[in-house]
Amino acid sequence: MAGIALRMLFGDRTKLISLVLGVALCTLLIQQQSSLFVGLMLRSQNVIAEARAVDIWVMDPATEYVDLARPMRDVAVYQVRGVPGVEWAVPFFKSSAPVKTSDGRLINAMLLGIDDASLVGAPRRFLIGSPEDLRGPDAIAIDRVGYAKIWPGEPIRLGRILEINEKRAVVAAITEAAPAFSARALIHTRFSQARSYLGRGRKQLSFVWAGVNPQSNAQLVAKEIHKKTHLKAHTSAEFSQMTIDYYLRKTGIPINFATTVVLGLVVGAAIVGLTFHAFVTENLKQFASLKVIGMRNMAISRMVLIQTFAATAIGFAIGTWLAAGFFDLVSKPTSALRGMYLPWWIVSATAAIVILVVLLSTAASLRRVLAVDPATVLRN
Asked: What does pTM read for this prediction?
């Protein structure tokens, strides 16, 4: 029975190719767009994830996510240090900055200022140099991709001069920092240096980073910080989720990606449904002949399902291969989409969705096969 079903399917190569392409297109769009969406959401909190030594983020009560912080006064650092359970607390500066090269080109960068004394929160991966290189005069560390955007096609060389807000900056190290959500380059420097570049007024502190005692609970200490200082305090995990939730609730990103995924489903379902309907229509006489020789509806249903799942398996494999190939192509260290990948759970979820869509698309055709009158078909 399975052999007959597959011979019928592979005997009409035009219909088979249409079925496979419909499933492959549906699979590719779902996996690619879903993975890009997940990658963007994870990228939105990369600044938090990179600061692994930090247990608690303290911020102004008006701050909703990591990319838009309301500045605080420096006294907040000392207030946090005085809370029971806090082992250490250091300032952190974060702001966007226009960076100017010697030939007058401008590029948007994210400027991150870490504690001068401890260098807590320095990038974990350096391509050239180390955190200690940030202690030099006007020293900054720039990520490799940012360097390539500022000096495209040129070899990596330390000591290059940049201008940040009309002030001198010297490239002292090159990092492999995780990409940020919006900035084209990531620049790390000391807190005092960052503040001298962009600081204005009395409030120049973006966040306070805090570490808790080993015997203390970070969530409880965060609540105590809020109670004592009236500042918002969250663990790193909580703040990461807050940032992701902000982009989910208050931006159009989810709608844009969902629209593409839905269109992929609709187009794939339409192609599969119409093609399989044409395939069944052209093979009604064969199904009728099988009924004449005594094959029951249950057996014919299994044949149709075998044909459906065979085409679906081939199309799904091709679509997954194309999606994986796309992410392999764009995941190069210097790519703007570096760090993006195809999660296994998206592949599994896509398989379930595609199977459901294909079954619904072929349901009408299957019903027609089961209801066919052999005598009428053969007589015609």
From this structure: 0.84
